[in-house]
Amino acid sequence: MDDIGKRFTNLFGGNPEVITTAPGRVNLIGEHIDYSDGFVLPFAIKNVTTVAMARRNDNMIRISSLQKAGEVVSIDLTSLAPQVGESWTRYVLGVLWVLKVDRGLDILIDGRVPLGAGLSSSAALECAVAIAVDHLFEKNLDQAQLALAAQKAENDYVGMPCGIMDQSVSLMAKAGSALLLDCRDLSTTNIPFDIAPQGLELLIIDTQAHHKLVDGGYAERRASCELAVKVLGITSLRDISVSDYVARKSELDPTTYIRGFHAVTEMQRVLDAVQALKENNFSKLGKLLNESHKSLRDDYNVSCPELNLAVDTALEHGALGARMVGGGFGGSAIALIKADHLDAIQSAIASAFDAGHFKAPRFFTSLPGDGAQVIAS
Ligand code: GLA
User: Fold this and answer.
1) Is 32 in the pocket of ligand 1 (CB under 6 A)?
2) What is the Å distance from ligand 1's center to 3 Cα?
3) How do residues 162-208 score in pLDDT, each as one tens digit?
4) What CATH number is attached to the domain comprising 21?
5) Residue 213 pLDDT
């Protein structure tokens, strides 16, 4: 924190008025259903993005990142409009635009959530900026309002039609728990996820794969779910049981049906996973992770060879369960493993990637951390 403060002063002159942090996330289960009003069960990881910010006496926004070696991007507040600004700055500018910031700012970013790993570095950046603006301009927005503002920035300014999960967990997470988030009304319940005393660990495997489908594929899956809702004449896929959905199969074209089938079955798996956690039944949780992966791979068709190899290898070497996380087409997988299997599973996955001529994966472990915070002002 001191470090970013000093660097801010060296770069911009003056001290930051506020320093905030916001974490990335993994999602235990509940994938691709936040935009269908589902329940999801993510938690915040320990990697955070830190933002130092101070107001200026003019209309200039100046943004720099410690990961961009001193580069300072300047833009006049009055020119903010969707898609304006260098691509990495749009997550920041979008939040300023949505929150109607009316005064220039100096902003320094230290992004420690791995980029492009499917761990929501973009939501972490949006949320760290959102709470800094909220604090400086005394907007007194609650966490749900801030999450919606950050999502709107990503939807309307950046142009990515994401759901509400990543921003919500980055803001609302509590250490030691996974966050059961109802994406319909943004109400939350903390579900204790204390696996260390059970001798377990959650391994995060960043496949370092980024397939081209990432943007178009996401929007297309979301559109299929919206089409299913329209054809079936329901409010959302949240409002239909698996058996009712299956009974109405003939009303939907095959692709729309199978995409919606993922959504309705995944919604049930989240509720079952919460029950498994309440019972400390980790083998049941592991099976649900496996079913989620199969559904994402075969029905929703958002996995990729690297994610499948990471999951299969983890399972072959004793993982209780494993699945891809996030939007898919690359990014990360998680594996619920016995802590004393950690080294063996990591090296088995690394060897399998090597043999498959894939880029070397990166490994992380993280217990559930806290959500976004003002750490100095
Ligand atoms: C991305 C989006 C989220 C969510 C996940 C899939 O991370 O930002 O809103 O849809 O994909 O669960």
Assistant:
1) yes
2) 32
3) 999 999 999 999 999 999 999 999 999 999 998 999 999 999 999 99
4) 3.30.230.10
5) 64
| Same domain, yes or no: 137 and 85 | yes
Residue 69: predicted pLDDT: 81
pLDDT at 211 over 90: no
| 166 CB near ligand 1 (under 6 Å) | yes
184 and 39 in a common domain: yes
Dihedral sign for Cα atoms in the order 216, 150, 189, 18? positive
Query: Can you tell me which atom of ligand 1 is nearest the CA of 122?
Result: 8
pTM, two decimal places = 0.96
Do 176 and 284 sit in the same domain of this protein? no
Alpha carbon of 33 to ligand 1 centroid (Å):
8
Domain count, the chain: 2
C-alpha to C-alpha distance for 374 and 1, rounded to whole angstroms:
11
Catalytic residues: 166
Structural element, H or E, at residue 166: helix 165-172
Sheet holding 188-192, edge to edge: 39-40, 177-182, 188-192
Using one digit for the tens of pLDDT, what is the confidence trace for 289-333? 999 999 999 999 999 999 999 999 999 999 999 999 999 999 999
Under DSSP, the state recorded for 150 is H
Ligand 1: does its nearest atom lie under 6 Å from the Cβ of 163? yes
The residue segments making up the domain with residue 101 are 2-190+369-376
Task: Pick the residue whose CA is nearest to atom 8 on ligand 1.
Answer: 162
> Which H helix or E strand runs over 330?
strand 330-338
**Index of the ligand 1 atom closest to the CA of residue 118:** 7
